[in-house]
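task queued by scheduler; priority normal; single chain, no ligands, no partner chains; default sampling; output format set to structure tokens
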Amino acid sequence: MRRKKVFGQIRKELGRLFHELARPKECRILEGHLMLDHVHMGIESPPKFPVASTIGFLNGKSAIAIAIARRT
């Protein structure tokens, strides 16, 4: 069973965080839905970056940011 991690103040800041993380990869988030325990996103990405690499980058960096935010 998934634990409900995305909530409260963290949830409010995630949209901005994802947009900031997408910028260096030259990606654009077209649509996003924050659920209680996961995120759905529509992303526009240039063909020079593999999709798995882009998603892995966003997933990893956002997980680190959430872990840091939860500590404070």
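post-processing summary
- The domain at 8-71 is CATH 3.30.70.1290 (Alpha-Beta Plaits).
- The first strand starts at residue 28 and ends at 34.
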